[in-house]
Amino acid sequence: MSSTESEPLSTRHSIVFNTLVAFVVIIGVSLISMLASLYLADALEGDAEAINQAGSLRMQAYRLAFTAEYGSQALLSERIETLQQTLRSASLRSALHRHDSTQLPALHAAVSQHWDQGMRPLLDAQPARLEEYRREAPAFVNELDTFVRTLQEASEGKLSVIRALQAGTLFVIVVIAFVLIYGLHNNLATPLRSLTRMARDIGKGDFSGQVQIPGDTELSLLARTLNQMSQELAGLYADMEQKVDDKTAALTRSNATLQLLFDSARMLYSKPDDPSQMMGAQLSKVQQILGTGPISLCLNRSSEAGSHTAMTSHDLQPPEYCQLPQCDACPVNQTGRLPTGETLLTFELRSGPDELGSLRVASRTGEPLQPWQTLPLTTLADLFAASLSLARLGQKQARLALMEERAVIARELHDSLAQALAAQKLQLARLKRLMQKQSDQAQLDDSVQQIEQGLSAAYRQLRELLTTFRIKVNEPGLKPALYATIQEFSAHSGLQVESDYQLDHCPLTPNEEVHCLQIVREALSNVVKHAEAAHCWLRLTQDTLGTIHVTIEDDGIGIRLEEQRAGHYGLIILRERANSLNGTINIGRRPAGGTLVYLRFPPAYRHFSPQTGTGHA
Known about the structure:
The chain is an alpha+beta fold. The chain has three domains: 181 residues; 140 residues, 2-Layer Sandwich (Beta-Lactamase), CATH 3.30.450; 144 residues, Histidine kinase-like ATPase, C-terminal domain (Heat Shock Protein 90, 2-Layer Sandwich), CATH 3.30.565. Helix content is 64%, strand content 11%. The protein has a five-stranded mixed sheet, with helices on one face.
């Protein structure tokens, strides 16, 4: 529990309670003043009428003297009765009752006695004693004046009390209001302005302000609570800013590390044949971004053969401790420490069972690498290892491809040109024997003719081999090469070739593309040289089983049966290429006239292993 929660608020120090008390006092004083005023006003009710009636008694007293002298007896009696009723009227009796604490009752009794005993008997006498009445009238009027004046003074005294009560009430209310306003100004308005200003500063992120409100009121409690909250928020914001700075630094390091790995992968991909130089060029960036000590790279072909390349992030030269090729004396293989006291941390470059080298980082004793440093170094070592492994695999594949290419050339030379030359060697030996035996000229001419034909066939075979070895498929896919071949033959021979290529969704291997293209070139060459055709149709399709169908038709004179039986060398080459594709080729007459060459073979991507059910080339 906080200190502010443990501080109870006293009722007598509450601004709200004090304000309510002040308003209750104001309302109470006002209510008492109103009730007192109402009571006094009620006490004054009828005084004016009583004063008027008392004042009229004077006029009636003088009028009685005139009526007695000049009026009738009946009128005199009537006016005597009127004065008698006025003197004993209800308003006068009520006024006497309201002012019973004054001299009014005695004055009224004296006036009544004077009337009953001194004035009325003079008028009731027969005849009326007017002279005596006139002499007595001034005294009676003086008594009436005294009575009226006393009644008026009593009434005015009560009015003075009402005015004094109202003035006192107003004074009390003004004093209470002034005290209330002064208290609210000091205890409410001023502290509220301070609290509002502090709240505005807190909203802007400024927690340095403090508000001091003396006393034990609600606002002082609120000020202490707000001060404590401001201090706590200042601490939280400072801690949060530190955390944000730490996170920002971590993200910056992560971004720099990812960029480093991306740049490294892109550079190694750009030159996959010799990645070692690219790897060495990255060492300085790795050291700069990760903030480590000197980084060195040691490469070897196998763990038994030792290292062959070593470089550092400083100058791409072997480190000072390196004594290639004496790897046994390397500190890594000894104590793992440099003469300067630094520790060498090793990240192996491993691809499967092969150890391709190591990435080494020098660090000071007592300053180990952080996880955010070791992780990218491990990833970079794996990336270097993968790049070296791919480069070695590419070199191995290049050597295998070169050996395979040379084997193909040797096989082609052995199966064609070598056999043809061997046959001519035998023909030449036969010619020598005939010449030694002095055979007739016909036998000699026949042997020479066979030698010439054999040499022509060997020369043709040589040209076919040269054409085969020099053929290029510059753009990916068979289609561009076929169109280029069609344009070549059309331009040089005038032959109109119409093509229908439907293998856009059929991926062929480079070997299949070359053999298929060479078969089409050989067929078109035969059309141009032997068919005497004006049109030729080329069509490549694939059936639902995946088999490729290639047809070459022309409208020429057609192939002769003796040419097929004679085993024309060009046709032999076509059959050999078809066999290389695991396919068959048929050459015959076209039903509509001309020659039809039909090739069918299964593409490699549709071959499936019966054991595993997986495709293989």
